[in-house]
Design a protein that fits this description.
Layout: H1 7-29, H2 35-53, H3 60-80, H4 84-112, H5 114-118, H6 123-147, E1 151-158, E2 163-170, E3 185-189, H7 190-193, E4 205-212, E5 215-231, E6 236-247, E7 259-261
Parallel strand pairs: 2-7, 3-6
Antiparallel strand pairs: 1-2, 1-5, 3-7, 4-5, 5-6
Helix pairs in contact: 1-2, 1-3, 1-4, 1-6, 2-3, 3-4, 4-6
Length: 267
């Protein structure tokens, strides 16, 4: 028995779900994406799925491998603005993982709730269950981020002769800010800063007051630098016009890290 497929309904359902999936992938990769880019990526995903679905005489697993994978990569590239193959593959893995979990959670809701089961083809109910699944994933992602807030990352700084790579610690207890602008401030060991004398410009000089245990009040010299690059486990992020305070001494007794980053730079 042949079953009718309403391509407009398939397109709309996939478009809405792709909006949720790309938004989750953007959050996980710690990217900044405009709604227009997410919208464009979702349109590509929905249109690509419908096109592949309509191709006759091709086994489903071949459609997935040679059709949906390239479409999904295009969605990530448009929606998340990934850089490099590694970050693109990370995004692809996250997109398919979220697709698996949201789809499974939607099926669970539809099977367990009688009203949803009897109206499972309704677009509004698909939208509702999709949003509930999306919200559940966001909750889980935020819980995971909180558990990982204090973690190490690699930071690339612009040195006098070449780029300098240091190990940074994202510290939730680092509340250091520049008093005039209120911008968060990172702390860098002086030994590393000496390799960056080319960035020591008088017009970028800052005075940063602080207080800590054992020293109620103190002053750190700081500078604004044009950009830094932070490499996380899930991808990379570039920050422009950041403030760095110079610390005379070792930040880690064992030398595990040479820089302390504010928690705002983790998301």
């Amino acid at each position: 028995m042949l079953r009718s497929i309403y391509i407009d309904r398939v397109f709309l359902n996939n478009f809405v779900m792709d909006l949720f999936l790309i938004t989750l992938t953007v959050k996980t990769l710690k990217k900044t994406a405009t709604f227009f880019r997410i919208l464009t990526g979702s349109l590509l995903g929905a249109a690509g799925y419908c096109l592949i679905l309509c191709l006759p005489g091709i086994p489903y697993f071949l459609k997935v491998i040679f059709g949906m994978v390239p479409v999904a990569m295009g969605m990530i590239k448009l929606g998340c603005r990934t850089k490099g193959l590694k970050e693109l593959l990370y995004g692809l893995g996250y997109l398919f993982t979220y697709s698996f979990f949201t789809g499974g959670f939607m099926l669970f809701l539809i099977r367990r709730v009688p009203f949803l089961k009897s109206h499972k083809d309704s677009f509004l109910l698909i939208l509702l269950t999709g949003y509930v699944s999306f919200s559940f994933c966001v909750w889980g992602l935020n819980k995971y981020k909180k558990s990982r807030q204090n973690h190490f990352c690699r930071v690339e700084l612009e040195g006098d002769d070449e780029s300098i790579l240091v190990c940074g610690l994202i510290d939730t207890g680092n509340g250091l800010t520049e008093p005039l602008s209120g911008k968060p401030v990172a702390i860098l060991e002086e030994e590393v800063w000496k390799k960056m004398n080319g960035l020591k410009k008088p017009e970028k000089y800052k005075i940063i007051p602080y207080h800590s245990i054992g020293k109620e009040n103190g002053i750190l010299e700081g500078y604004e630098i044009e950009k830094i690059r932070i490499e996380y486990e899930t991808g990379t992020r570039e920050l422009a016009h950041v403030l760095i305070a110079v610390f005379n001494g070792k930040l880690s007794v064992k030398g595990e890290y040479q820089m302390i980053l504010p928690p705002q730079w983790a998301s």
